[in-house]
């Protein structure tokens, strides 16, 4: 499960309890926060994907699925594309939350990383992008502001792939009805980026709707994975070719 811009694995605190006991819920932090706070921040999507690819390598010898929220959705998508390109094992399911399908050129989704500190804080207040206490405390912002700016640089400068082939992986999209950042149309557009689109699930709430609906989302993921398990998952195809 991959976290949002400016966030950490704490976004998914408590989620493990919603899944079966024999599932391993892997919560990785991007460098510069949480469990890897000592590592330098990464501002390039390709570099962060390679970092996660290395971190996940020991876990990819068994069935697995990806779920990413906001920036985490972008990372999950690009990581899946990397595995396809390298001929590695593929996720049985790719869940993308509050991140629209690729469109246009790099920067099409904004230039937030270029805003002044005051402008960036105002933007985050307006969109509900982080807790008010973080934005209103200058000392706290000095610590976390650079993390937001680095992550937004990654998202805003990511070059969408040109004529990318649809993923050979089931994809499901999730979103909030009142999300000011990502429209339902952008979420539905993921259907063009997979050979097996499993639909769009919308919930009450804004960009961080998922914090109020984790049980429903976990249930949906378990249901989808129970269906995909009836046919050989993509990772088995690659294992058979080895």
Describe the structure.
With 242 residues, the chain is α/β, with parallel strands linked by helices. The chain has a single domain, classed as 3-Layer(aba) Sandwich (Rossmann fold), CATH 3.40.50. Helices cover 38% and strands 12% of the residues. The chain contains eight helices and four strands; from the N terminus they run H-E-H-E-H-H-H-E-H-E-H-H. The protein has a four-stranded parallel β-sheet, with helices on both faces. Helix 1 (45-56) crosses helix 2. The longest helix has 19 residues, at 138-156. The chain is globular and about 50 Å long. It starts with 44 loop residues before the first helix and ends with a helix. The relative contact order is 0.16.
Produce the secondary structure layout.
Layout: H1 45-56, E1 66-69, H2 71-86, E2 94-97, H3 117-127, H4 132-136, H5 138-156, E3 167-176, H6 184-188, E4 194-203, H7 214-228, H8 234-241
Parallel strand pairs: 1-2, 2-3, 3-4
